[in-house]
Amino acid sequence: MSPDLRGTMRNFATGVCVATTYADREGLRRHDAVTLNSLTSVSLAPPLVSLSLHRDSQFLGDLLETKKWAVSILAGDAEPLARQLARSRDDRAEAVAALRANPGPVTGALMLDAQSSLECVLWDSFDLGDHTMVIGEVVSTGIHDHQPPLLFLHGKFHQLATATTKES
Fold first, then answer.
1. What residues does the Flavin reductase like domain cover (predicted)?
2. Distance between CA 92 and CA 75 in Å, rounded?
3. From CA 165, how far away is CA 107, in angstroms rounded?
């Protein structure tokens, strides 16, 4: 009997973010965005974070080509956006086109109107099982809001109404 990793990890609450990248083809830039809960802080010096993406992801292919991406950490009221961007690339294209976002000043990847964000450049990548872990050097950060975060737990999105990020 193999271990039930998915079932076990359903009990581990994670934050929810949107990662963005792009592809330049024939003089046109096509942005893409995807909902993730695999963002991890790796190192403070140098500032490094990681994301894990399915190895056959078109988003991953674009990210590895540009070597640039942005991450927007979502507030609790962003569940509808998180759901829209958790779909297949074709299904989320309309939502990506309608994003309230601007190209990041360092990477050009879209920065959403979110509670906090960061821009990354590729530091390294590793194929691990059915995923690829990308390690990014954080080249820009921003904190825009102090709302409770959107969480993912037991296979569902949750708002953590009691969390505050303001100092008492």
1. 9-159
2. 20
3. 27
